[in-house]
Amino acid sequence: MCSVPKARARFEECISSQQEWKQIHHLCYWELMWTHSFQQEWQQAYRYADLLCKESRWQVEGLKQRLAGKSIPMEKFAVRKSRRYKAAQPVPLVIPAMEMMYVWNGFTIVGKRADYTESLLVTIEKAELQLRNDPNPSEFHPDDSSLVQMLKGLCLKNLGRLLQAELCFTQVLSSESRIRYDHFLIPFTLYELGLLYKEQGDFIKATTFIEKAKTNYKDYSMESRLHFRIHAALSSLKGSPVGTP
């Protein structure tokens, strides 16, 4: 069982214990931002994000870093997402904080607490309803709807509502031809669906979907991040008993 309040107290103690090493403060700000985000305490989360923005040089388009001649994938992802706000007619992201929470594997942490997960699900379903009732859907509507369904499926899976979660994931996959920008959603959803089948004990089906995510898609956002997760999942499946046909 995760204990966000205890973790938060430790990070706050670390900040107050010294003032010489600001880099340590920045690491704590980052973690505190997420601990507040997990509980949807957005003002407090914004406070630490704002401190990082003012004291660091992270994820700013003009200051992108390159390592071994390559851009950092997370920076590229953040910059690409931010362009919706810089367009001539800006289109806000649908649930950006939760999208980033997923990319940083935060749903794995939140999923250990049913109360946090239920709270996230309420917010996600509000976004789902808003998209459904949008009288003037933008060109991003299929992408946004698919993102919402994937995150909704994750919450439902973590709450043990596996059939409903499966329906959400399959809805994302059925929208593949309509997704215009966020192509990462399909391989990530295949991976999550594979984990769901693993949880149900169908290891053959789980392996099939995770392998499909690995081999059938390339050149999408956060590809290397997903491949790390895929490698871990397939390694664990190798030691699993034979699943149901």
Automatic annotation (TrEMBL):
Full protein name: Tetratricopeptide repeat protein 39B
The entry's keywords: Lipid metabolism, Repeat, TPR repeat
Any matching Pfam family: TPR_8
Protein family: Belongs to the TTC39 family.
Superkingdom of the source species: Eukaryota
